[in-house]
Amino acid sequence: MANKLPHVEDSGGTVYLPPKNEYETFIDDAHYEEKVREWGLSVKKEYWYKERTHQRIVTIKGYEVYGKTGEHNTIVLEFQDGNLTCIHPAYLKEMQSPSFTKAAISDANVSQPKTKETVSKVVVEKPETTEKKPAVKKEKQPEKKVKKEKAPKIELPADKVHFTAKVKQFALTWNHFNEDNDEVIVLENVVIQQEKPVEIGLAWCSHSKTLKKLELEPGNTLEFDAKIVKKRLAKGKDVEEEFIIEDPVHYKINNPSKLKKS
Q: Which of the four CATH numbers 2.40.50, 1.10.3470, 2.60.40, 3.30.420 does domain 161-261 have?
């Protein structure tokens, strides 16, 4: 017998890929705006979902979290007829472009193998350079190993927990979805407060509207409830020295609430 395909609903020419399990919803408008910007989308209530022959209006209902540490998202869309479907953030962003067509995307995918063949031919036609390359690579390998700093192995809780932390600095991080720098806060002395406290060390979170209302400064201490995932903080591009991240930060704080500043 053939293997069964995953369940897919089809209605009116649109193929729906509904969420398989429960998905995350937005706490409030500020949380919605923060996530939408993180995905590289303009903040608004309605978006276009485009097919080859037609387009439909959708709203963002929530998002799924996946990956070993929950660092990736799939957006859950709701159509006007109430149907739900899942979509990658980058794909939804492409759909908002006036020039978007599925045909153009499929043509781009077909052209990729040709470039791979061209690259392989160039490597074969230059055997002389292959003698010098191994020596250069061997010299660089030890340097790369020294620079890599692994985060301590910590079992992160899946649900929201209570934290205490201290504001270390404000920084800018590169967001590849919207191709611009985002404002973030780097926290130090981050501790999960429970029966056996868990010391996280450094962590970061988006400088959302909710946090901006607190008018935070380096040195402020905070208490809050939030989720935490393993997600390294990327450095910003072309930023001033005061906004450069000084130390590697391996953990991200998501959806902080019940914030207290002291």
A: 2.40.50
